[in-house]
Each structure stands twice: as C-alpha cells, then as structure tokens.
Amino acid sequence: MNGGCMCGAVRYATDGAPFVVGHCHCESCRRHCGAGVGTLVGFKADQVIFSGKQRHIYASSPDVSRAFCNECGTPLTWEGDGGDIGPIIEIHIGTFDNPHVLVPTSHAFYNERLPWVDVPEQLPRFEGFPDDSPILQHGPTGTSSTDA
Ligand SMILES: [Zn+2]
Ligand SMILES: [Zn+2]
User: Fold this and answer.
1) Using one digit for the tens of pLDDT, what is the confidence trace for 92-123?
2) H helix runs in 1-148, sequence order
3) For the chain, first and last CA: distance in Å?
4) What percent of the chain has pLDDT above 90?
C-alpha cells in the first residue's frame, strides 16, 4: 500500500500485511495527531520503504520516535521496539492513499480516551497495548458486556 503526507514530499510504500490496525487513545498519540484519537497501522520496520524527502524524526520518549513531514507538518509514524518482532513502524491511518481498506480491530489505552469518545462498535477495549494488557470491555461504555 502507498501513502504520504499532505504536501506529497514524504511518501511511503508498505509490503505485506500489517500486524495491527487499531485505535490508540493515549495522550501522546492525541498530541502527535492533533486529533481526539489516533488510528495506527503497524508494520515491521523492514516492511516500510520511504521515498521523497526525509521524514523528520522526533524522539517523543525513550526508545520511541514519532515522525512528521518537515514541509507540511503531517504526522506520519510511531517508531520503536516491537519486542519479539523487532523494530516496528506504525503509520497514521489517515496518511494512506486508500485508508478505507484498513479496518481497525482494537482500542488501546482505552482508559485515557476523551470522555466523549464512545464509538458504537464492538471492538475490544484494552487497558494498554493489545498484545500485553487486559481487555476492559467490548463495545461502548453504555453497555455492560465484558466478555472476552
Ligand atoms: Zn508534507
Ligand atoms: Zn498511543
């Protein structure tokens, strides 16, 4: 799949399937995106090839970087250590040329969500990262389902 920033200076191509497509409610993703919730598509770093101008990399916390376009400011990635799968690059879904074909399957850091974020779907809500934290609930807060 292909994508890039708003001005087109930074482009990327991904190879193969992502290991995660998910919403993230953490404060850092909100600030980086300037949005109420971040939605990220995660790949092993070697599945992503950038072209055009160099993305600007900002060290947002120890061992974690976030990149953006130096020309137009579009937020592009979360980059860091994926544990067992090695270095990973998670790309903000809105920067793909065809983001509609990518369908989120989880909510990360659900407790950090803004109070008005209560989307009416049944995806599992995790306390932290989907691969190493408990599921808080399925579905909107207004329902009481906690079946995992
Ligand atoms: Zn740009
Ligand atoms: Zn996040």
Assistant:
1) 999 999 999 999 999 999 999 998 887 777 88
2) 27-33
3) 32
4) 73
Structure pTM? 0.85
Query: From residue 17, how far is each of 20, 48, 71, 80, 81 by CA, in Å?
Result: 9, 11, 29, 18, 18
CA of 70 to the centre of ligand 1 (A): 6
In the chain, the amino acid numbered 38 is G
Q: Which of 44, 47, 27, 43 is nearest to 35 (CA)?
A: 27
Ligand 1 centroid to residue 33 C-alpha, Å: 14
In the predicted model, is pLDDT for residue 147 greater than 50? no
Ligand nearest to the CA of 80: 2
Q: Two tokens at 132?
A: 């190493």
Query: In this structure, which amino acid lies at residue 142?
Result: G
- Is residue 55 within 8 Å of 99, Cβ to Cβ? no
All structural domains of the chain, each given as residue ranges with its CATH number in brackets, are 11-138 (3.90.1590.10)
Q: Is the pLDDT of residue 148 over 60?
A: no
CA distance 96 to 11: 10
126-to-24, 34, 36, 97, 108 alpha-carbon distances in Å: 10, 22, 17, 28, 5
Q: Which two tokens stand for residue 60?
A: 């947002």
